[in-house]
Amino acid sequence: MTKEDDRFIQVREGEPLFDTRRKTGRVIAYRVFSASVFFCICCIWLYRVTVPTEIDENRTGLIWFGLYWVVVQSLWWNPVWRFTFNDRLSRRYGNDLPSLDVFVCTADSVIEPPLMVVNTVLSAAALDYPPEKLAVYLSDDGGSELTFYALAEAAEFAKTWVPFCKKFDAEPRSPATYLSCKASKLGSAAAEEVAMLYREMAERIETAARLGRIPDEARLKYVEGFSQWDPDATRRNHGTILQILVDGRKANTVTLVYLSREKRPEHHHHFKAGAMNALIRVSSKITCGRIILNVDCDMYSNNSKSARDALCILLDEKEGKEIAFVQFPQCFENLTRNDLYGSMMRVGADVEFKGLDGNGGPLYIGTGCFHRRDVICGRKYGEEEEESEDISETEMIKALASCNYEENSQWGKEMGVKYGCPVEDVITGLAIQCRGWKSAYLNPKKKAFVGVAPTNLHQMLVQQRRWSEGDFQSIVRFGMPKERSALD
Ligand SMILES: O=c1ccn([C@@H]2O[C@H](COP(=O)(O)OP(=O)(O)O[C@H]3O[C@H](CO)[C@@H](O)[C@H](O)[C@H]3O)[C@@H](O)[C@H]2O)c(=O)[nH]1
Ligand SMILES: [Mn+2]
Q: What ipTM, to 2 d.p.?
């Protein structure tokens, strides 16, 4: 009997858009192994507790390690694998998909070179998604004219790049990566032209970065944007800069927006969490995408289907309704030899997150995550979704990214991304789950997002220390009933 080809059958009512599978054999084998280890741990505990203290001074350490082992079993006990049916999504919804806002965050034009940042923006703009439903917002906490200039250049280049990707089904859609790995086999005239345009753009951006000077023609061409920088503006002290570089609402193309929220030395800016909240408010008055994708500026989209994959989960009629966000793993392309610093996080990505997914859902890890806008804004599970907000004028929208806006408000507490924790993403995800939502983990063969991992010991230690401090804080905050009810 031939297997029915899924592409040619009509989607039946109630047919799921994704499937959740368990590998029973593997799971049973692991559970047997785990039970045998547990038996041994119990024997050690028994011995340590019965033996006199004078002989055994290491009692607490071993008991603690045993307890730790028991607790982390929850991560390995019930792993699940999710598979999406993209073709069913296309047949059921066609181009009638919810609007999607992509938030790219950058903070420093030296550490995060503008050319890398715009490659991430371009890869997101070229996602396989109806262009008029897609908007990419770049939040620049560095308040850098150079980053703005690079985005303006990228907005021009996007006019060629996005149609090119769609026409030739190019992958991956970060131009730098595509052109470097396909350079020798480009062949077609269209590809040569796009490669030439990219090289010219990259050259202009890199020259401006090297000289620390924006070309005069560009200042004139984008005068509306550049005029928003005061002569005495610094990265820690400037007003809101907001420029809609491409307004796709009018032109049936992808919307591109530059935002650098107001910064004043006397106001705490709350790092990336503050940037995310400003983006949530500002975008709510421009495109107000029902779905929000958050990526770090060094994590380009490597698989143009990721947005559709995430929607297979979020739009599924049966199980999707209770899922608040879909998290993809963090993958890296610059791993050191033998992955010296363990940046691949293989245990986390291949095992533990699948285990978390089997127990209510993975954590939100700050990048490669698709959220429902209303949920990240504070909606509880079971409440009705509200109508989208009004569209306003640019000057009114700028007030939403000012330092004072959040005073005496719930932003950073009940609304948006939470403040006061080095891993704002993890604690925000946990708070969403405390409000009754689930989340889902997708780890497709073709990596959805690919980024840059720390390349030296110093960078790695800084990152690990921040994560450990943040994760520990999250455990303490969620462990205490008073804090926990404040997060609910
Ligand atoms: O004041 C700030 C500081 C950082 N960022 C951006 O936040 C992202 C992550 O910062 P980074 O310094 O690269 O931290 P990592 O340790 O690499 O980031 C991981 O860990 C963070 C904390 O959990 C998450 O927010 C990230 O998404 C996750 O990739 C980058 O795009 C930054 O540009 C801002 O926008 N504003
Ligand atoms: Mn990073």
A: 0.98
